[in-house]
Amino acid sequence: MLGASGTGKSSLVKAGLIPYIKRNRGQQWHILKPIRPGESPLKALYNTLNQTLFTDNLLLNTEAHVVNWLQQNPQSKLMLVIDQAEELFTLCRNEQEREDFLKLFAVLVANNSDNLRVVLSLRSDFEPQLSNSALEPYWYSSRVPCCLTTGPDKSNSLSSELSTATISP
User: Fold this and answer.
1) What is the DSSP string of the chain?
2) How many other C-beta atoms can be found within 10 angstroms of the C-beta atom of residue 6?
3) Nearest-CA neighbor of 42 among 81, 100, 91?
4) Do the beta carbons of residue 143 and residue 123 sit within 8 Å?
5) What is the rounded CA–CA span in Å between residue 120 and residue 113?
6) pTM for the complete prediction?
């Protein structure tokens, strides 16, 4: 989800996309609580995964744990939401951790595109920072510009954006 500051990216995801999926496709989706990367994006991810998917509180080998969950739940699809993804560049000062975080999601998406969706909300002025990152090919092929329209066609536009965001890998 890409858009300028203040255009409602987070609201579209939290109050639009997530309820839309739960209402229309809820039985097949396991949607994790949205995370914000903050200063330590891997720690934020671990905390969310450990609170929702894993009970063993393991921090190592996140990829294997997610893949294992997907294999154990073949009837389910998993959605990970990274809200305010620009925090990867504004708050995370550890370049290696930032690269590891982006690479982890690129590998997960590459190997599990049938039953995994990663939704990022990103301010458009930070889009260039994704260039040359592990997520670049996935980002540019599947991003959804957030341009909520007003007027009589608003619901059709929103429905179309939500459908695109959930169907396209």
Assistant:
1) -EE-TTSSHHHIIIIIIHHHHHHHHGGGEEEPPPB--TT-HHHHHHHHHHHHT-SS---S-HHHHHHHHHHH-TT-EEEEEE-STTHHHHT---HHHHHHHHHHHHHHHHH-TTTEEEEE-EEGGGGGGGTTSTTHHHHHHH--B-----STTHHHHHHHHHHHHHH--
2) 7
3) 100
4) no
5) 15
6) 0.81
Residue with tokens 């009589």: 152
pLDDT tens digit string along 102-112? 999 999 999 99
Whether residue 101 contacts residue 41, with contact meaning beta carbons closer than 8 Å, is answered with yes
pLDDT tens track for 63-114: 888 888 898 888 899 999 999 999 999 999 999 999 999 999 999 999 998 8
User: How many other C-beta atoms can be found within 10 angstroms of the C-beta atom of residue 19?
Assistant: 13
Q: Which two tokens stand for residue 160?
A: 């179309």
Domains and CATH numbers, the chain: 2-167 (3.40.50)
Contact 159, 113 (CB under 8 A): no
Give the Cβ contact number of residue 12 at 10 Å: 22
Tokens 């999601």 appear where? Answer: 105
Angle at 117 between CA 78 and CA 5, to 5 degrees: 125
